[in-house]
Design goal:
It is a single chain. By secondary structure, the chain is mainly α. The chain contains nine helices and two strands.
Length: 327
């Protein structure tokens, strides 16, 4: 019996680097998420935009004296709003234009939602892969930075012109004689009359809005995921909790940047020459409350949209893990 022990060297299989298809999977999953999401939540976006554009009309009313009941003695100007609230928007729109009226402008959002969500989840996934630690976790500052970079990118590439067309189409519907026949006609008319820059009105507030939106949303979402899983990347979050976390993240973003959203919407309606002038006019005419017009319907829409978005995205990515593995 030999006293010398022989050790057989252990041969480890080479580690396979993650496939570059992971980034493309995020882009595809994001596009699918956007298309499904918009079809569900668009009516609330329509209500929010109508309320934000409802600055009212000045109507002159005559007041009569008791001594001269058939002769007007005073003319008084009164600002009358077209809508009294969210429910009133729904009632009047359906009564005047039917249920399809609630989906006026949805085409442009569908066309914009797919590339927007593709960019959103694709860019965030890319940035997360670059700035996460060896365990796949992001620091609080990195979460904000990745979200901010995601928002700025989607605002510059997609969101500004999509939002401009959406606001113009919805605003045009309020007129007695609408001038736009559809998405393509609206885009061509704006470019012809105002140049390509007409589609990028409100670029600055849109970048501010989307940058802050995604910084808050992704930061909140990643923080809540990390809290639930204990920073264990192998542990998944149940879909009901994903929806709850998404709703909370969306609500935080609404409270944080509704004033920017109001300024952006007014700018894209074509009524102001600059972002600062728009903000000054809103402050002078409507006060602080003017910056939070449409906050409630926007809160309803965003909480629902973000909750659905993360649920749909996670579900699609779960399917991709089986039919389209990343390694």
């Amino acid at each position: 019996m030999s006293l010398v022990q022989t050790h057989t060297p252990t041969i480890q299989a080479p580690q396979l680097a993650p496939s570059s298809r992971r980034g493309f999977r995020s882009i595809v999953a994001g596009g699918l998420t956007g298309g499904i999401n918009i079809c569900i939540v668009f009516p609330t976006e329509f209500i929010k935009t109508q309320l934000q554009l409802d600055t009212g009309k000045n109507i002159m009313t005559a007041h009569h004296s008791i001594m001269a009941p058939y002769k007007a003695t005073i003319l008084e100007s009164k600002n009358v709003k077209a809508y009294t609230g969210s429910v009133d928007v729904v009632k009047k729109t359906i009564r005047q234009k039917g249920v399809t009226g609630m989906y006026k402008g949805v085409t442009v959002l569908l066309c914009g939602a797919i590339p927007t969500y593709s960019v959103r989840f694709g860019v965030f996934d890319f940035l997360k892969s670059k700035f996460s630690d060896q365990d796949g976790n992001l620091s609080p500052l990195a979460r904000l930075g990745c979200g901010l970079g995601t928002g700025v990118t989607e605002a510059t590439l997609v969101m500004t012109w999509v939002e401009t067309l959406k606001v113009r189409l919805i605003s045009d519907q309020r007129k007695k004689n609408p001038q736009y026949r559809g998405l393509v006609h609206a885009a061509s008319s704006i470019i012809r009359n105002e140049g390509l820059s007409g589609l990028y009105k409100g670029l600055t507030p849109t970048i501010l809005k989307q940058g802050s939106n995604q910084a808050i949303r992704f930061s909140a979402m990643e923080t809540l995921r990390k809290w639930y899983t204990g920073a264990d990347q192998s542990k998944s979050v149940p879909k009901p909790f994903v929806a709850l976390f998404g709703a909370l993240a969306g609500g935080c973003s609404v409270l944080g940047n509704t004033p920017i959203d109001v300024v952006k919407t007014r700018m894209q309606n074509g009524s102001y020459s600059s972002t600062m002038e728009c903000a000054r006019q809103v402050a002078m005419k409507e006060g602080v409350r003017g910056f939070y017009k449409g906050c409630l319907p926007r809160m309803n829409r965003v909480c629902l949209e973000v909750a659905l978005a993360f649920c749909i995205y996670d579900s699609v990515m779960d399917i991709f893990k089986t039919v389209w593995p990343s390694k």
